[in-house]
Every structure is written in structure tokens, then in C-alpha cells.
Specification:
Beta-Lactamase, 6-stranded antiparallel beta sheet
Length: 301
């Protein structure tokens, strides 16, 4: 696919890297992220696009039922220079509700190919901060996306980042750094465990749903946004308790945070309980030894 002769934009705001095909996007947390993004944006199609230096791949695609047009299929590959995401990474605005008349997006070949009127996108980074993918929404109608909505979309992109490849090498102990975040050895990795916990909570708390009905009533749109944000806020609040429980188990069982989280999640699932409910009991047990816990979570290994 050619880009009507237009030279690709220079990728000044975001780093341009070549990455292998992503293999970690089948986790249910990714389904939850796409569902949440679709509810948040109210757009017909939400997708994760993988990037190489020259190509763009629709890695995951979430589409509303009965939208009546040929949407990009998962695995479809385009020339990167012809995509709207390439322009986003080249410095174009994060969203447009009139792509055909937006000079930043009008000449993108993918815009005319799929009949895109509205677009929004945010970068997805790997653990070293390189841009390796994008989380995006597209629609044939005019859909304006507010900046506070884009901020939530960026948080969802951080959840996706936690699932791109192994988070930490097996056997490596993660410790809190004095400046905050996690440190592996002498290298700061960012709060990867936090992102992993949030992803798991999103997967457990959110269920796929249909596209919100489009309406001209602002209150309905605001109400839908508030619902989506409340779902994410609930997961964020639960994450705090889970991270506290991870700290207790890490100290109690002389394990890494990653191992502690995996153990907590496994025990919760085997007993049909929610992770954050069991996490509350673990935190309580740090102050009250009489709080009953499953044997896998009590005492040292």
C-alpha cells in the first residue's frame, strides 16, 4: 500500500523500534482492556496494533456487533507509513473526529481504505520505554474524544504493556527502590507488578459488553464515561490492597513479588474467591495472627 506519495512523518515524539511479533495478547486481561476501551470511547472498533519499522499489524481487534462495514481483521498487515497510527507517533494529535479534513490524517491510506472518520490512539511501551504498539479506536461517524478520556486510555495501554513478553526473569527478586517503583538488581524496571495486578483485576472484574448506544444527549455520554472510569477506579483501589498483600507474602515466604502474586492468584482461583478479597485477609493477618488463611499463604515456604 502506498501513501499517496507522502513521505512518512519523522518519529520525533516517540521512539521508532523494530520489534518481534507479540505473543502475549491472548490473556483475558487484554480482552478486558479492549472491552473497557470500547465502552470508554463509544467507538465501533478498538484495536491493538503491533509495529515494526515498515509494517503495522492488527494484533487484536474488538468490534461492536452489527456495525455493517468491513473492519480490519486480526493478523491483517498494512504498510506502516499508510496508517493513522504512524502519524500519531510522528506527532499528530491523539484524536480526530474529522480525519478526512484533518491535515494530520487526511492523506493516510488506511483512512480511505476503511472509511475512517474518527480516530484516537495512544502508544504502548515495553519495559524499557520503547514504543512497540498502539491502542486505538476508529469510527465511521464523528466521535469527539475528550482529553480526560485519552488519559484513561493511556492507563489501559499501561496494562497492555505489562503483558508484552515476560515481565521479569525467573528467579530474579524484585525490590522496591528508594525512589519508588521496582528495581531488579541495579536496574529500575518501573512498577511492573502494579501493572500486572491491575491487568488481572480488570480481567476478573470486567465482562465483554455491546457497544453503548449512540445518542445526542450529553448526559448519557457522560454517564457512560463515568461508569467506565468507576470500573477502572475499582480495579485501581483493589490493586492497592493486593500490593499490600504481596508485600506481606514476600516478607513472610521469602519470595519475589512476582512469585507472591502468582501464589495469591492461584490460591484465590482454586477456592473460587476474588483475589482482592483474599488479599484483605492476608493484610489483616500481618497484624492479627488469628486470621485464618489457606496453608499456602500462612508462614514461610
Amino acid at each position: 500500500m502506498r501513501d499517496n506519495g507522502r513521505a512518512p512523518a519523522a518519529l520525533s515524539p516517540f521512539e521508532d523500534v523494530t520489534v518481534p511479533a507479540m505473543t502475549s495478547l491472548s490473556h483475558p486481561a487484554i480482552d478486558a482492556v479492549l472491552t473497557t476501551a470500547a465502552t470508554l470511547l463509544g467507538m465501533e472498533v478498538v484495536f491493538i496494533g503491533g509495529l515494526t519499522e515498515d509494517s503495522f499489524t492488527f494484533e487484536r481487534v474488538h468490534a461492536s456487533d452489527g456495525i455493517g462495514w468491513d473492519i480490519p481483521s486480526e493478523g491483517a498487515v498494512l504498510e506502516r507509513a499508510g496508517t493513522l497510527c504512524h502519524r500519531l507517533l510522528g506527532g499528530a494529535p491523539s484524536s480526530t473526529s474529522d480525519a478526512a479534513n484533518d491535515p494530520s490524517y487526511s492523506e493516510a491510506a488506511a483512512r480511505s481504505q476503511f472509511g475512517i472518520t474518527s480516530y484516537v490512539g495512544v502508544p504502548i511501551r515495553d519495559s524499557e520505554g520503547h514504543v512497540v504498539a498502539t491502542l486505538c479506536g476508529i469510527d465511521r461517524d464523528h466521535v469527539a474524544i475528550a482529553e480526560d478520556v485519552i488519559d484513561v486510555l493511556r492507563q489501559l495501554a499501561d496494562v497492555v504493556s505489562a503483558h508484552l513478553g515476560p515481565l521479569v526473569e525467573e528467579g530474579v527478586v524484585i525490590r522496591r527502590s528508594p525512589e519508588g517503583g521496582w528495581a531488579v538488581g541495579s536496574d529500575s524496571t518501573g512498577d511492573l507488578t502494579s501493572a500486572m495486578v491491575l491487568a488481572d483485576l480488570l480481567a476478573g472484574e470486567l465482562q465483554p459488553g455491546a457497544r453503548p448506544a449512540r445518542t445526542d444527549a450529553p448526559l448519557d455520554e457522560v454517564g457512560q464515561l463515568r461508569l467506565s472510569v468507576k470500573q477502572l477506579e475499582h480495579a485501581l483501589a483493589a490493586r492497592v490492597v493486593v500490593e499490600q498483600a504481596i508485600g506481606v507474602l514476600t516478607e513472610r515466604q521469602h519470595s519475589s513479588p512476582r512469585e507472591a502474586f502468582e501464589r495469591l492468584r492461584k490460591v484465590a482461583r482454586s477456592r473460587g474467591r476474588k483475589v482482592h478479597d483474599l488479599a484483605k485477609e492476608v493484610v489483616m493477618s500481618a497484624h492479627d495472627p488469628s486470621v485464618p488463611l489457606p496453608p499456602e499463604l500462612a508462614g514461610r515456604r
